[in-house]
């Protein structure tokens, strides 16, 4: 009897372990479960599931394919890199509080989605000044691109450093990119990589969904960074920023040249 009892308990324990492995080895989606690739099955992986926050991850109302395990994993990694445990500072929130009251009404005036205000935080949120390649200002314009969109650069003048003027130039550039790609996520990717390179990648891959394209490391993670930046600014407590509260933006005059 004792041996039979022990055997029964052993079988039950094995069944429980198998059940647990099934739970932690799948990603919950809207339609059921989908096994993760072996390379993604790590103890640190947190699933972007059908929770109330899953559908909230988007850029300019263009949603991520949340039932894609690789997309989920990439998003989680990017969110983790931007949480307070890794940043250890409220520098992003301080810059947002300073820049957004100026940026937001200009974006609205030019018909650019509000989410593009996170580009300056991604481009120059942690650092400031001129990049090794020559980009400058919070929008990190290269000299040639800056001049194309109306900024004066040279002879002791650099309007890339003017927040209002550089934001107007960025809006004109982004609007042109959207006209070319008819997608805000692709417009953001083109802002990072250039429209010519992105167009070639689209034609070569016969794919125009940013999240399913194979791009270079920087451009392939760019929109994920924007989404992560949006998350930590809009839901700071969810990402460990416990002691930061946003002040409402100051009213701005919507009249731009």
UniProtKB/TrEMBL annotation:
<feature type="domain" description="Transglycosylase SLT">
    <location>
        <begin position="107"/>
        <end position="209"/>
    </location>
</feature>
<comment type="similarity">
    <text>Belongs to the transglycosylase Slt family.</text>
</comment>
<dbReference type="Pfam" id="PF01464">
    <property type="entry name" value="SLT"/>
</dbReference>
<protein>
    <submittedName>
        <fullName>Lytic transglycosylase domain-containing protein</fullName>
    </submittedName>
</protein>
<dbReference type="InterPro" id="IPR023346">
    <property type="entry name" value="Lysozyme-like_dom_sf"/>
</dbReference>
<dbReference type="InterPro" id="IPR008258">
    <property type="entry name" value="Transglycosylase_SLT_dom_1"/>
</dbReference>
